[in-house]
Amino acid sequence: MKDFIRAMRRKQAFTLVELMIVVTIVAILALIAIPLYTANTTSAIMSEGVAGAGAIRTALRIYASQTGGFANASMSNIQIGSTDLEGKYFAQSDYSIVTATASTYTIKAGPPSKTTRTGMPYYEINQLGSELGTYYTNQ
Known about the structure:
It is a single chain. With 139 residues, the chain is an alpha+beta fold. The protein has two helices and four strands, in the order ααββββ. It has helices at residues 2-10, 16-67; strands at 95-100, 105-109, 121-126, 131-136. Strands 1-2-3-4 form a four-stranded antiparallel sheet, covered by helices on one side. A hairpin with a 4-residue loop joins strand 3 and strand 4. The protein is rod-shaped. It starts with a helix and ends with a strand.
């Protein structure tokens, strides 16, 4: 019996306080890491939308050089094919030309429809290359 008691005393184990400290540290790290991960994945998803908006801008510039302006420009008459803007997160229907006058246009990309995430932003840009912002929807 004395050998058993000595063996138990020699055995080292974590105390409850040590375990609580480790759990607290892991929780703090998770509170920092999860929002950063979410922001980075949203940014990565939206980069596809920005690239698609760039393709539309190029097509609009070609359209303006052929017609003399941006008036009457639409997704169907600027020579964008039905699958040119299809991506992993964005579908062709996620892009639109919001306004198109003789000298101005505004392109909207998003929110992406091919993702299960909610509350995703959309992106707008105009003829000057000015990003009108990234706006969050109420999805």
